[in-house]
Amino acid sequence: MTNILPPRAGRRCHNALNSLHSSLYFSPDLDRELSALGITDQSAVRLAARSAPLGAVGAGTVAATFYNYNHELLARHLPAVWETASPAEVLAARLRAVDTTLRRLLGEDVVASPEMAEAAELALRAAEACTRHARPLYSANADLPVPEEPHLAYWHATTLLREHRGDGHLAALLSAGLDPVEALASHTATGRGMAPRWALGSRGWRRVDWEGAVQRLRDRGLIDAEGELTEAGTALRAEIEEHTDRLDSAPYEHLGAPGVERLTDLGRGFVFAAAAAGAFPEDLVGKG
User: Fold this and answer.
1) How far apart are CA 256 and CA 184, in angstroms?
2) C-alpha dihedral over 207, 226, 178, 8, to 10 degrees?
3) How crowded is the C-beta side of 199, counted as CA atoms within 13 Å?
4) Three-class HEC string of 150-196
5) pLDDT tens column, 80-119
6) What is the chain's mean pLDDT, rounded?
7) Residue 27: helix, strand or coil by DSSP?
8) pTM as predicted
9) Over 60: is that where the pLDDT of 2 sits?
10) Phi and psi (nearest 5°) for 230?
11) Peptide bond before residue 6 is cis, with ω within 30 degrees of 0
């Protein structure tokens, strides 16, 4: 089998890994763990869980590193949330939630399986080639210890790979000239992004912000009167993903084609099982 990666192989692998990683942010187990620390607001829960590796940061740092969140939403919770629970306490609670969530979604047999151990080893090997420069969320997570249990090590590795690609994706969005809401709206228009109500609710934007972004995209000839991507809009979104692929190629080239194929297959199996167990809201993705 050739060791040259097929086109978009890294992206396909990322999509499988990222999907299981993201199940944590829809998990009642995360809410339960952080509620026990005194963090009960759902927005605060998710912001604290993802930003905790950065330390006790404020809204400005998270606005920069998360890209598409409204600073007003962030400022309501950060840095105040760290007075309720420290980043170290949140990180420990996050890992407990991952453990409970994966056991609930995948089952004990899968969690303890040779396939899970293999997936963790492959994902960690890919992450060896991630780079720290200009990648704040990846770099912060890379400072955390690798958990011993394979299912937790796998989730940790998916975090590293997800944030590595995500940090690069922000550079691609900046190069494309898309502001935070334009990035969300144009992604939704592809049919693969979050439905507007999820994008607005989780990111703290208002309907008027969304409508303004759509109008700006329309003025640039990227979205038509029906809210669909134009040929130029489709080309721009494709170039953003290809730009991101180029910035994120190192981990998958390091793993090699056979390893990427195997990791993708394993990751997809875990995601399908998690989805069948109700890991994701049914209306999460879509244009409506």
Assistant:
1) 32
2) 120
3) 26
4) HHHHHHHHHHHHHHHHHHHHHHHHHHHCCCHHHHHHHHHHCCCCECH
5) 999 999 999 999 999 999 999 999 999 999 999 999 999 9
6) 97
7) coil
8) 0.96
9) no
10) -80, 180
11) no
